[in-house]
Amino acid sequence: PDMSENEEAIIARPTGNGSSIVRTGFGTTELDHRRETQSTAMAERAKAEVQARFIMAMQRPRDIDDFRVRLLKHCDRKGFAMQAEYSKPVGGKPIKGPSIRFVETALQEYGNNNPAAICVYEDDNRRVMRVTMTEYERNLTWDLDVVVEKFVERKQPKDAEIIGQRTNSYGDTVYRVRATEDDLSNKIASAVSKASRNLGLRILPADIVAEAMEICRETRAKDVAENPDAARHRITDAFAELGVTPANLTDYLGVSVGQASPSDLDELRVVYTSIRDGEARWADLLEAKRAERNETDPSKKAASAAEKLRGKIAARNGKANPEAA
Q: What stretches of 93-180 show up as alpha helix (H) in DSSP?
């Protein structure tokens, strides 16, 4: 073909093993032999999938009002409302928010979005997962790198490989041991779920999420009002599966479960969801609750009282008999 000196011609000539690309320009000619490989096929497939998602988003855009109605309908269901909120201690105070299960359902109803997670780095001590959340209608993508350490903490390491140790807030020695495949899978799943929840809240309408949480609270309150005893039994049974006894719940609330108010029962439901989803640990939640009431650990309080008593006795004996003191 006719070309100016700044133009380049690309002529594709098929061969038996693929195609040959002849590039001519600037007084030179280059021949590039290309073959179809598995990596090329996979790249083309991924490209086609992404293009298909954007095309579907353009052809079937979401209706915000329809999304709101369908999400609030979920919130009227007792089973969904009971696991829609979490609580965890931050800075010594409990904070609440939409749970992982709530955001997963909201994203399904919202549509035209794609949560994904891929491994971008791994060595003997950690694995880095890149979690992304893409909203196709607005071509908006949020991503977050999650670092998962390949160790778990145990008070009794048994035969596990010990990496290190530390002293927790209760003065107990906790050992860091090498994580098994099951432990690592659980840590990765929990970390990815939390990151997906946080990224999902960035694309969901905040006003509809807040309205849905209010409906969930009303649904839970209605369930307690209809049958308080059954609600208490369900809560104590659920915590028992996590190894938390009714005595532990009494320590958390400051009153027995039988005397708990509807708001106390609702708080226990939220705490249960947090522990089950891996948002927080029971010991941390209990410590934060005691700090909120300006209380300390009963065992530490008793030890402190014993120290004061021994000090008083020693002082009294010293006055009566200085040499014996």
A: 100-110
Measured distance CA(24)–CA(305) in Å, rounded? 91
11 Cβ neighbours under 8 A, 6+ residues apart: 21, 22, 24
Compute the distance between CA of residue 188 and CA of residue 186 in angstroms, rounded to an integer: 5
Is residue 165 a contact partner of residue 174, using CB atoms and an 8 Å limit?
yes
Judged by DSSP in three states, 125 sits in coil
Kindly write down the DSSP assignment for every residue of 172-213, as one continuous string.
Answer: -EEEEEE--HHHHHHHHHHHHHHHHHHHHHHHS-HHHHHHHH
Tens of each residue's pLDDT in the chain, 325 residues: 454 544 444 444 444 455 566 666 566 777 666 665 677 888 888 888 888 999 999 999 999 999 999 999 999 999 999 999 988 877 767 788 999 999 999 999 999 999 999 999 999 889 999 999 999 999 999 999 999 999 988 887 777 788 888 887 667 788 888 888 888 998 999 999 999 999 999 999 999 999 999 999 999 999 888 888 888 888 889 888 888 888 888 888 888 888 888 888 888 888 888 888 877 888 888 888 887 777 655 554 444 455 555 666 666 666 555 454 4
- Measured CA to CA, the distance from residue 130 to residue 148 in angstroms comes to 11
Strands 126-135 and 93-98: unpaired
| Structure token pair of residue 64 | 């915000």
CA 154 to the chain's CA centroid: 21
Q: How many CB atoms lie within 10 A of CB 74?
A: 20
Q: How far is CA 221 from CA 158, 159, 259, in A?
A: 45, 47, 16
Q: How far is CA 219 from CA 109, 268, 312, in A?
A: 20, 15, 55
Residues 194 and 207: their CA atoms lie apart, in Å, by 21
* Largest Cα span, the chain: 118
